[in-house]
Each structure stands twice: as structure tokens, then as C-alpha cells.
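Homework help board

Subject: predicted structure for assignment chain

Our instructor gave us this sequence and asked us to write out the predicted structure in C-alpha cell form, then describe one feature. I got the C-alpha cells but I'm not sure how to describe them. Can anyone check?
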Amino acid sequence: MMNAPLNMGKALVLDGNSAPVAVPPMPDYNGRVVAYTATALIIALGMFEGLFGANMYGLLAGCLIWPHIACYLSRRTLLRKSNRIRQKMLMLDCIFGGACIGTWGLILVPSAAVVLMIMFSCLIVGGIRQWLLGMVLLVVSTSAAVALNGVPASLQAPIWTTLVSLLATGTYICVTAYYAHQQARSLMLAKTQIQNQREQSIALSHKLSKYLSPQVWQSIFTGERDVRLETQRKKLAIFFSDIKGFTDLSEEMEPEALTELLNHYFNEMSEVALKYGGTIDKFVGDSIMVFFGDPTSRGQREDAFACVSMAIEMRKHMKIMRQKWRSQGIKTPLEIRMGISTGYTTVGNFGAENRMDYTIIGKEVNLASRLESLAEPGEILVSYETFSLIKDRIMCRDKGEITVKGFGRPVPIYEVVDFRRDMGPNRSFLEHEHSGFAMYLDSEKVTEKERQSILSALEDAADRLRQEDV
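My C-alpha cell output:
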């Protein structure tokens, strides 16, 4: 007289190919048939032993017919659209069960058997709330049936009716418990499979992230950006750089050694770019293209300042790397040259539906590339727009004007000297380079422990030079 308590949704198990497969639990129809068949058996045996009167024929017929009617109401009528159809049908089962108990006059063991089956179903299907509501309906319907039929002189049932009642109730509970166990096992297997697939997806996403700038990858995987062909106009700071002397070096070195050197260079420069929040667009040969202001922006002024700050640190870092390469036997002097422009560009996904590239286009991109090609080794050239945004914090030198395709008038350009805070006697970065000697000092990055070691090394070097003078 109740729904099958196991139909909480389809469970997932694994097939032979380790793919999740939907396995339905014990259906409501089957569970209701088992419960009502058990109740009908109690009624029939009670009538055979003379415990119940002829008025029970109606309930007996109802127990045999109601599961099919409930199935029809749940699947073939407007009730099937209800989100809580199972709970509603279970309430009808509670009313029907109360009618049975009240009609046969509260006979103890058969009544207890029906109550146990109803309580078991209510608790599993809807928890305490469903159980409380079901018990209220059960008590109300039982009271109404008792008021109509009265209470017999004895509430004791014959031995066979008692035994069948207990056996029928135990059978129903065992069958539903078995299906509950199977469903729980299936859910555990599904949980394990889902966890494995989740770990595989995370590992795959981290691998794919190597082919995208972290900002772009993050915006895609968090759902902030759709993967479709779309663009927008935004004001960005665009950076280009390449290595002066790399072509000559490629003729001197073996391809494997050259590849290792280039990858090391890209790795070091990428870390600097990410430190300042730049979106790495692409690597082309020995060139790097980075832009600031998309997908995240801190404002035009801060984006331009971060871009130029990145370029200054790259220039300083290149000097340190050059000294390291020299110690490895690379004698060709490698210098980085950089160009930066700021302006409106078109940014977004370009290409085809099945192959996209997240990049930028526009005349400002061409200007940044042109500035990079005009820069001298170790020089950073910026456009006037960039200069106007950074001039209060970064010292620049006027370099005149150039003519660029796409610009109606000559474009003023400037050379980046250094941070204003690092100019004069208080500057943090010092450099000195001669044949047989190179020194690059960034005092802001030196720890107290390293400071003593550096001072000791400088004192030893100074003593050696003084001895040679003598």
C-alpha cells in the first residue's frame, strides 16, 4: 500500500567499457504490487479463517486493482507533470491503508503489518516530513473507518493470519531493502567513475591551458567567456619584442642547442609577463607579443604602466641571462629590443568555428611591431599615447617622429629610460660590464643572507684587482 521507496532517480553503474549506464531502481509499480499483494493475502486469509466479514470483498478487490490505477494516474494523466507525484500517490496509499485497518477493526498484527509497510515507505521516500504527514492521514482515515464499522470484541488474529501478516511484511521490507542496497552500490560505483572522470578532465584542462594565456584559459573554464567567433573594441597596451643577433646565432649553434636556448628565453620572459598581468598572445620565431587590458583590465593608465614595467624588467633580466649564456660558451651578444603602443584594437576570437585564435588586430598592433623593429638593441620605444599615460612614473626620452602606414600624420615616439624612482643615487638596479667583468645588481631583490655573500664576493674581487695593480 505504498510507493516503492527506492525510486529516488536512476542510478549509474559501469558497463564493460567503463562508461556510466543508467540502471533504474525498483519501479513504483512493482513496489506497489508487492505491498498490495501482501495486504490482499492478509485479507483473503483473514476471511478464510472467519476473522473478517463479507464487507472485506471490496477492499480485497481494491488491493488487487489499485496498483494498476495508480500506475495509470502517474503516467497517463496530467499528474505525471507534477514534480512530487510519488509523494502525492503515497498519501493516497496512506489513506487506503488506514481504510483497511479501520474496516477490519484494528486487528493488531494485520494492522501493525500495514502500518510498518507504510512507515517504511514514507521514511525512505520523503523523510520525517513525509512520515509525519503520512501518519496523520493514516490516523484520520483509520478513525473514519472505525467510526463506520466499529471495533470487534477481540483484537487478536488467528495464528495463520498472524504468521502470514508477519511474513508478508518481512518479505516486502527485505525486497525493498535489497533494491536499496543495489541502488546504493550502483551510486557508489557511479561516484567513483565520476570522480575519475573529473580528475581526468582536470588533468586534461591543465594540459590544454599550456596552449592558451592563463587569463584566457581562466575566463573560458569559469564560464565568463564563450568559445565562439566574436570580437570587441577595447583600448589595450600592445608589446612586441625580439632578439637582436638571434639570426647570426642560429647559424653558429646546433638546432637542438638553439631550441633549448630559445625555450629557456621564452620561459623566463613569460614568467615576467605573467607577473605583471600580461596576456601572452603568441611566440613567432624569437618574437613575443603580449597585450594588457583584456580579458581583465586595471584601467588604461595602469595597463600601460604594467606593460612598460614588464618591458623594463625584461631588459634587466636579459642582461642577467646574457651573462649566464656567456658562461655556457655563447659568445654572440644577444640583446632584446622592444616596442609598445597603446590604443583601440579589435580583440576576440578569429578564425573558423572549428579552429579559433584569440588575438588582436588593428593599426596599433602594426605600430607596436614597427616600434620594435626600429628599436636599437636594449632599447624600449613607446608611442605618444603610451608616453602620456606613464610619463609621471617613468622617465622617457624624445626620439622624434616616424611615419607608419595607417596613420595620417607622423607618430611621435619616445625611448624608455627607467623608473623615476630608480633614477639618481637611490636607484635599485646597477650594471657595469667590460671584457672579463660583468655586474648586475638589483638591490630590491637581494635578501639579507644573500647580501653578506655578495659583499664578500665583491671584496674578494676588489682585493684581486688591487693586487694586480701592484
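Reply (TA_rk): Your C-alpha cells look well-formed. For the description, you could write something like this. The two ends are 111 Å apart (CA to CA). That's the kind of observation they're looking for.
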